[in-house]
Amino acid sequence: MQSLSERVIVIKSGGEMGTAVAWRLYQARLRRIVILETAHPLAVRRTVSFCEAVLDGECRVEGVRAVRTQRPDQVGEVWAQGALPVLIDPKWDSIPFIKPDVLVDAIIAKRNLGTRMTDSHLVIGLGPGFDAGTDVHTVIETNRGHDLGRIITQGAAAPNTGIPGAIGGYARERVLRAPVAGKLTWDCLLGDLVQAGQILGQVSGKPVVAEIAGLLRGQIRPNGHVPQGLKLGDIDPRGDAAFLHTISDKGRAIGGAVLESIMRAYN
Fold it and tell me: Is the pLDDT assigned to residue 100 strictly greater than 90?
């Protein structure tokens, strides 16, 4: 009989939340994990996102190493190193080859981009856009508040409000968005302490302005073309530099909920 630690888990997206899930499972000794990513990921919190391995070859988040992997038949080599493979597979073509015991859709697209309950024995969707019992087995609530991390076995998570969760009393104000479409350049670095009113960068000559003071905790990579309204970064008003390299409370809650869902199914 297959042991719990031998179960294969595929996570769609190595962004902040997908990374938090992978890290939590890894710490629980569930290490046969494969992260599927696009060739050009757009992580905001890059210091806590395994998708950075796609661009840099490898990266670490809170001591766990992830390695870019070209083919699904190479994931075993990465597991043998004690690391997590990040496979470039934007269309998820590798899933039939990998045959995961658990599939986690951590794209956080606020809609289902093609995940089906038949993709694996246990299919978990994070946030709104999934219906437990119809297209996935369980949904994890991702909305900050009383129900964050709740496991939903029938129905959907709370609808997307379009308003970020508040940190330090600020919600919308802490998020940086592209004022227009165009090429992005930055005048500051990830981890800088910034002031309200400071120009942090430009999109096609239009300034990206900080509305509040704090630590620049998230910042997408420069020199790419961004659409108007895209989230470019976030400012943490608490200003604690330690938060730059650590998984958020929200990420840990969601990761714990995914771990519990797997325990319910297999333990």
Answer: yes
